[in-house]
Amino acid sequence: MKIKHIEHIGIAVRSLEQAIAFYETKLGLPCYAIEEVPEQKVRTAFFKVGQTKVELLESTDPEGPIGKFIENRGEGVHHIAFATEGLQENLDELARNGIRLIDKNPRYGAEGLHIAFLHPKDTLGVLTELCENPKQ
Ligand code: ZN
Hints:
This protein has 3 helices and 8 strands, in the order E-H-E-E-E-H-E-H-E-E-E. It is an alpha+beta fold.
């Protein structure tokens, strides 16, 4: 298992527009991309903070994962994502070591990354995402 750095921190927000305005005008971080990910029923906005990004997540469907998260827990930190190499091998290794996986195989996330989520019950309550950039 090799984790390179924190790829991004995912934050669930009710309104992408309001959240972008806060990040841009109050924190001085320009939004460099907005992308809809229909498979996850979200619209995302990205901000670079050094090598790490902030990913704001707005639900496009109350029944989607972010819609349910906000209904249950309100806005806030949703997940942490680590950049890795060899994503499938890492998932296999974790599964062998008894860590439950939400995604047994990588799927497509925003920004062309391959992503997979680990089960928060086995990651100390923090929804954890592993990412791999197929272009690197
Ligand atoms: Zn993410």
